[in-house]
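Lecture 7 notes: from sequence to structure.
We start with the chain below.
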Amino acid sequence: MNASAYYSDLDDQQVDRALFAESGTVTLTENAGQSRIRGFEIEARAVPIEGLELRLTHAYTNVDFAEFITYRGGQNVNIADERCFCIQPKRTYSGWVSYTFPSSGIGTFQVMANFQRQGAHGYNSTKSSAALVWQNAYTVYGLRAKLYDAFGVDGLGLNLIGRNITDTVYTVNGINFFYWQGYNYGDPSHWTFEVEYEF
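Predicted structure tokens for the same chain:
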């Protein structure tokens, strides 16, 4: 098992934000001031029996602005409570389990299942807009079957790979444009077959 923890204070931080005007879209660089990042990561690995391997990871990140100064109403105002970090889930998980069968005349066969879970997160640096372009927590599952040294040929590998096998619908980015919200979506369920040769 491995574990680590971290804490960071960032000063004089700058944040880019998109603004929409009649002339088009422009990028505004704001002096965010100060932010705090703290969290931990844990990774566990186990081999309970020969050929079987399990691995699980968990990461927790708590990040916020301690100070975000803007000019409002003729004076400098700290609006840290109105701002947030984009695409920063508090919790993420991943894991996989694999089993390698004893070698036989046709090669060495291995099967593996995996998952990745992302916590809820927004796609805008203002809390009010982030609530409009929001991704709830989701989990993506995968499968892989591989035959090493296939049919007695050293270095020949055959792979059947399934990604997002449950066809989970999730977003990887989003934009809030006045009264319209748009998203980029993650890949749907798909399978691939790969042939590899190592020499």
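Points to note: Residues 2-197 form a domain with the Maltoporin; Chain A fold (CATH 2.40.170.20). Helices lie at 127-130.
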